[in-house]
Amino acid sequence: MEKVGSAVKKIAYTPPSKRLSTLSPPQLSLIPLLSFASTLYTFATHLRRQLYRFNVLAQLRLPIPVISVGNLTWGGNGKTPMVEFLARSFSDAGILPLILTRGYGGADEAKMLQRQLQGTSAKIGVGSNRAAIAAGFLEQYGYVNYHGNLSSEEQFSEESIESLSYTSRIGVAILDDGMQHLSVRRDLEIVMVNAMMPWGNHQLLPLGPLREPLTALSRADIIVIHHADLVLERDIEALESTIREVKKTVPIFYTKMAPTHLFERGDVSSKIPLNGICNTIVLCISGIGSPNSFVQRIERMGPIHVDHLDFSDHHSFLLKDIEMVRRRLQALEAKFSAKPIVVVTEKDYDRAPEVFEHLKPYEVLVLCCRLRFVVHKGNTEVCFKRIISEHLKSGLSWKNIAPSN
């Protein structure tokens, strides 16, 4: 199954004009089937959106502002890091955020968020029916209205100030991977774009990586180009040009993943400085949407040599995978006459930390990163937060707004 997934991904990121020269015969043989499935997917996606547009399927309006963080393609776009950034920002401002995530892939992203946001006021609801999950949390904790200020000066409505313990009541909901989750109305649509692999072959799933056509960018209130530090300026300009063709006035921001430290397998409280892997042999293991970004960041930390084994996004590591990793480690040890270090992502570790115990006596480290804004064309984190505040202020009368077409 892993081989099929790799073949599909290869097809999705190969331009049609280069298929014959780039793809193998088995990969080429998959294209007719993928093309037929893509046609069915396109029809189903369009039909579903029309059913919501004409109110055949109902959208739930929550009694609090809702921010959707989503994307147009499959993984590696920085959705979950953005959700963590938003939740922490709201919590720091005295506003209790509720994260609604579907819990796909063994709920690895939810587990990671729970660990990262420990000690904050954030609540995390996991489940495919996010409307029902939200209703349960709102009933349990209550909710308040606020004026959307993300600065240190907290501003709440008179109603919330008069309420009891407003900081223990939910003030905003954040939809993780919410762009295609149409059953919940949102006040703000943030769309994440992976600068390293943005649109692939421009085809819809499963022939290409797109969940919706590029015209869906017209629904975005904010677009964030992620991994902006790992591509050339001309690539950023090309991305911006494509986005502006769909929506000229949308604010565009730029982010990266900034490594902060490493921790040891089995001890999440340990903090190893990034130079701890300098002059070492490293094997990167990952089952994420954008493994190249992970490898590039490790290479910047100064190891002598970096090797990598890439698995599909949300991959559940089995004992046969661990045996493969062990064989690669033994080969590296024989080649360099030094014991290599395994480095994994937070998401992979949180998915199943016990799996990596089977790699003893090899050392396993977990790379911790946080989303950071890249200043570009005057757009900064402060500007980003200001736009969010303005949108949420204008949405304070949400209870009287009917679902739009």
UniProtKB/TrEMBL annotation:
Pathway the protein takes part in: Glycolipid biosynthesis; lipid IV(A) biosynthesis; lipid IV(A) from (3R)-3-hydroxytetradecanoyl-[acyl-carrier-protein] and UDP-N-acetyl-alpha-D-glucosamine: step 6/6
Residues spanning the membrane: none
GO MF annotation terms: ATP binding; lipid-A 4'-kinase activity
EC number: 2.7.1.130
Signal peptide: none
A GO biological process held by the record: lipid A biosynthetic process
Keywords: ATP-binding, Kinase, Lipid A biosynthesis, Lipid biosynthesis, Lipid metabolism, Nucleotide-binding, Transferase
Domain of life: Eukaryota
Single GO cellular component term: membrane
Protein's name in the database: tetraacyldisaccharide 4'-kinase
Species for this entry: Penstemon smallii
